[in-house]
Amino acid sequence: MHLPTNNWTINKVLALYELPFMDLLWQAQTVHRSNHPANHVQLSSLLSIKTGACPEDCAYCPQSSKHNTELEQEPLLDLPTVLQAAQQAKEQGASRFCMGAAWRSPTEHQLDQVIEMVSAVKNMGLETCVTLGMLKDGQAERLKAAGLDYYNHNLDTSPEFYGQIISTRTYQDRLETLERVRDAGLNTCCGGILGMGETRRQRAGLLSQLANLQPYPESVPINQLVKVPGTPLAETEDLDPFEFVRTIAVARILMPKAVIRLSAGRENMDDSTQALCFLAGASSIFYGEQLLTTANPQFSADQALFQRLGLHSQTTLEKDTPPTAPARPSTYQAALETL
Ligand code: SAM
Ligand code: DTB
Ligand code: SF4
Questions:
Q1: Cis, bond preceding 215 (omega within 30 deg of 0)
Q2: Its biological function (predicted)?
Q3: Does position 163 have pLDDT exceeding 60, yes or no?
Q4: Whose CA is nearest to atom 10 of ligand 2?
Q5: Residue 229: Cβ-neighbour burial (10 angstroms; 0-12, 13-18, 19+)
Q6: In 131-224, which ranges are continuous DSSP H helix?
Q7: Is the CB of 219 under 6 A from ligand 2?
């Protein structure tokens, strides 16, 4: 997919954040409707294929060996276990299956094993995504050849705040992995985490980095920090939910064609906030009762929410329905006059 590139300075991004909330949402929903089918939300399911004992020190992460989180570590899952989970995700309506490993970066042997999983999941008719840490030269090409659709690798936060969150890999390391992913012809899934104690300017800094990637990512997960006891960020103050919604709206305006995923953190978000996120332009969620190691809403809760909001996830509609043209204000005026 050819995506246009941009030069979003932090000040330009901040100017969007500072719009009155209703104006920002109006603008974001207008951009959304000109670029995506209305009321459609794509469903991705997650599976942790290798859990815990990660050598990295990401302050938010329950899987880091540097924190005491009581997480049970697990070696790499075998192929039948992964396929069973993928089959279940498919039956439950997911169109993409994402596999995550708590690695700094995969060895060639580990990559061989993941490649088998990717081709088998792809053959089941699901889109595939993996997140395995940093990639070395040639590894992204091998994943692409196996049928991988998306590689997830997040920038997580702004360059200015990054040093307070991770010391074992640099921002530049992340950008280099993203470049390898892009050069291999894979779709990029890249986003970040909100609510780690960053300032609004730093949130704008993250969005400006994402929007200025050339081209910007096809898929942008926006996570709200899941505060896991034992991690250094466990006691971080809650982010104002409207600030979370604003970030989704600004991301939608900056990256009109990207799919913005309302990712981790929905378990601690009420239905109204989630509805505002969809209004702001989120059009994908992680679906299934577990993220990687933490809880996600029950299927029944998500199904009820979709029904109450008139949302649907049918993948056929994704291909067949053209983006809905934004209604012109005069249409609304005419409708109002008939009341
Ligand atoms: N180990 C690989 C890596 O970090 O590159 C892949 C797996 S890692 C768990 C994938 C992403 O999950 C992280 O980049 C981070 O954005 C997100 N994540 C991890 N812990 C989180 C938490 N407690 N709350 C929100 N997002 C989290
Ligand atoms: C992403 O941005 N969020 C997902 C996915 N990419 C791999 C991971 C969320 C993890 C939340 C904490 C956990 O469950 O371990
Ligand atoms: Fe390891 Fe990834 Fe967690 Fe960082 S985010 S500690 S790299 S699993």
A1: yes
A2: Catalyzes the conversion of dethiobiotin (DTB) to biotin by the insertion of a sulfur atom into dethiobiotin via a radical-based mechanism.
A3: yes
A4: 292
A5: exposed
A6: 139-145, 159-162, 171-183, 200-212
A7: no
| Ligand 2 in reach of 62 Cβ (< 6 A) | yes
277 is in an annotated binding site: no
**Number of Cβ within a 10 Å radius of residue 4:** 10
End-to-end CA distance of the chain: give it in Å, rounded: 44
Give me the torsion for CA of 18, 165, 160, 150, rounded to 10°: -80
User: Measuring from each residue's beta carbon to the nearest atom of ligand 1, which residues come in under 6 Å?
Assistant: 54, 60-61, 63, 100, 102-103, 131, 133, 153-154, 156, 193, 223, 225-226, 228, 264, 292
Element (H, E) at 127: strand 127-131
> pTM, whole model, 2 decimals?
0.90
% pLDDT > 90, the chain: 83
* Ligand 2 touching residue 52 (CB < 6 A): no
As a whole number of angstroms, the distance between CA 141 and CA 38 comes to 34
Catalytic residues: 54, 58, 61, 98, 129, 189, 261
Confidence of residue 323 (pLDDT cuts 50, 70, 90): very low
Residue with tokens 């969620």: 285
Cβ atoms of 69 and 230 closer than 8 Å: yes
For position 3, what pLDDT does the model report?
A: 53
Instruction: Place 318 in a pLDDT band, splitting at 50, 70 and 90.
Output: very low
**pLDDT tens, residue by residue, 14-46:** 999 999 999 999 999 999 999 999 999 999 999
| 227-231 own/partner pairs: CB under 8 Å, 24+ apart | 228/60, 228/61, 228/62, 228/69, 228/294, 229/69, 229/70, 230/62, 230/67, 230/68, 230/69, 230/70, 231/59, 231/60, 231/61, 231/62, 231/64, 231/67, 231/69
- Quick check: CB of 100 below 6 Å from ligand 2? yes
Q: What is the pLDDT of residues 208-234, one digit of tens each?
A: 999 999 999 999 999 999 999 999 999
Q: For residue 290, how far is the Cα from the chain centroid? A: 15
Q: What token pair was written down for 160? A: 């200015």
State the Cα–Cα distance between residues 321 and 323, nearest whole angstrom: 6
